[in-house]
Amino acid sequence: MRTYTFSKAVIRVSPLTYPSFVVPAFRSRSLSTKCITRKNPPPTVDPSKLDEISTLSNGVRVATEALPGHFSGIGVFIDAGSRFENEELRGISHIIDRLAFKSTQRRNSDEMLQALESLGGNINCASSRESLMYQCATFNSAVSDAVAILAETIRDPLITENEVQEQLETAAYEIGEIWSKPELILPELVHTAAYKGNTLGNPLLCPKERLTCINKGVIEAYRNTFFRPERIVLAFAGVKHHEALKLVENYFGDIPALHKNQLNTGLENLDNTSVSGQLNPTHVSSPPSAFNNLSSQTNPPVPSILAQTSSKITPRSTFYNYLSTWAADNSTEAHNLPFSLDFSQPSHYTGGFLSLPNLPPPTNPSFPALTHIHLAFESLAVSSEDIYALATIQTLLGGGGSFSAGGPGKGMYSRLYTNVLNQYGWVESCVAFNHSYTDSGLFGISASCVPAYVPQMLDTMCRELHALTLENGPYCLQAIEVKRAKNQLRSSLLMNLESRMVELEDLGRQVQVHGKKISPIEMCHKIDRLTINDLRRVAKTVFGGMVKNPGCGSGAPTVVLQECADRETTRKEFKWETIQDLIASWNLGRT
């Protein structure tokens, strides 16, 4: 993700205000005083009444939330991301956000940087599994200029071979760095194991051997596939709807709509690949310009996969077989490659086990050797009515690191703190996580512990999830902790939305997913109405492997493990069969 942050000093001179003084008795005199009051206080406006959504004739959707403030937010949200990639486009989502705000048809990269500096504010581009986001927060007076720059970098990028090569080299370094940090790579590998070989299991991080297959032609093919008006949402925070509509019509209204049976990727116009696997473009069409009518190297470790489908286990295989089929030695001619994209394909949850090579002991003896483990189950889609109960469960579990400064709002009374981190000295961290997508999701616990206690760590994680399903006993859900979790969830929701950028992303992503905006007030009402029975019912559904999503998942657990070589102790490998038996003993997942 590329982020530019610039600030400008704004000096405002306001009249001095003097405090009232009580005149001492010995100097009292007759004074004429008046009570200063506001004659007409502004009426309280429900922010949801300021939301408006329109669709241009070509399919571009425009969403606004005209809540006033010192800054405005502008975002372009595109239905793209690693979920939709096939073999030909694998890894492009990781690279394309790095090419944002570079040279365009109108100016070079230095001139673009100068334009961003003069604009002020915060500008970034980020890709995820289901969305590509260009966002900008700027002064209210600069909204028009911000939309122009966003349109320029989205619709008219030059994308030179030098720029592509530069970003590929940067990505190669970034890939090596991420693979060396378990806290960064393991969440990615959880998706790979959970959705083996499909949709949400596609790597968000570009496979390293794919870097030699990416060039300007492949980037243009990606853009021609996804940068279509019906896949674009423009969101505005702090801008009136009629003003936003005028800007979007000027800069995005001339993109031609795509017929349902038409899909031109640009790959059809590419020459054969060379021996090294490079694609050489002869001609690639691009969307019409927005301004035509305007005057103004370390190699990552190779883990092994045991993917479970129903009750069967497939043989061990190289991890990269599931990340990419585009190794250079297997490359073929571009026009002979099957190119089909089914944007409606549901994500199919498989579950499974992924074991990475052991980490070496820390070079500094004062640093502890730690084993990292993730346990996950398929959870609910973001559109599910039970998503609020699931979010409350995550808050209730909470968790964190073994050391925390504490304080109000830190979640020190959450279950993973009180039952795990405060009880076992061999636990370094233990945190609940929840990833929600349009048609599926992942819920689980990630933990780090001393290598000799891995079985006990997994057993403890299972115990905490199982306790959420109990209907009676000392470990079942209690009214006081449910109330606390609901309050924390509401507080987190409302405080995060104080940020203009969070408000903007919330608006854009909701319109992308739901086609409408669910107001914070409505969300808070839904959280308020949750009961202990609601949380217990959802916990039984998710942790029992009974979630019914469009992809008809297996219901099996997902486990990702990276152990660490301990200097002092040696023990047997923690095998998948043993892990399955342990999880099943707590009645978790479906076998």
From TrEMBL:
Biological process terms in GO annotation: protein processing involved in protein targeting to mitochondrion
Localization per Swiss-Prot or TrEMBL: Mitochondrion matrix
GO molecular function, one term: metalloendopeptidase activity
PROSITE patterns the UniProt entry points to: INSULINASE
SUPFAM superfamilies for the chain: LuxS/MPP-like metallohydrolase (SSF63411)
GO CC annotations, alphabetized: mitochondrial matrix
Highest taxon of the lineage: Eukaryota
Residue intervals of the Peptidase M16 C-terminal domain: 215-263, 346-489
Keyword ATP-binding on entry: no
PANTHER family given in the database record: METALLOPROTEASE, MITOCHONDRIAL-PROCESSING PEPTIDASE SUBUNIT ALPHA
General function of this protein: Substrate recognition and binding subunit of the essential mitochondrial processing protease (MPP), which cleaves the mitochondrial sequence off newly imported precursors proteins.
Name of this protein: Mitochondrial-processing peptidase subunit alpha
